Amino acid sequence: MDAPSVEKTPSPPSKDSAITLREIGKRNWRDIVDLTITESQAPLLSSNARSLCESHYSADAWVRGIYADDTPVGFLMMSIAPEVEWYAVWRFMIDQRYQAMGFGRKAIQLAIAYVKDNYPEADMIRAMSAGPEGKKGVSAKDSPYRFYTRLGWKEISEDGEGGEVVLGLDL
What superkingdom does the record give (predicted)? Predict the structure, then answer.
């Protein structure tokens, strides 16, 4: 007689987990919407629910869930508009439970590879961030500025919305 089938609970993600960018659809959108950031990071970023809604009305939006093995750990929304040579990280977050595990770095590297592979004419990817000193109501500690600059992004303009700076990564 066969032993009864027991569903295996997946292991929690570790720094060694494989990171993938997955389409968001009817089976996983709730998992992405339920991801959270810290209270001090909240002034920097629209909710994933708002971002998903916005993406449905933006022709240039490209959205993906960030997964560590099979666990949703983050959200990425890019603006991809080759007709005007615009490639930008629009929204990006890693759930507060999974920050500082290297998942963000790996996800951004996958996004860069996606742009390079699918839009070989692209010469730069942009992102906006509070500056190195933060901005009103946001500490430098909570700003993604240092995250991006550690990955080689450079400040290219101070003309971002609400006191943010524009960062660019040459491809």
Answer: Eukaryota
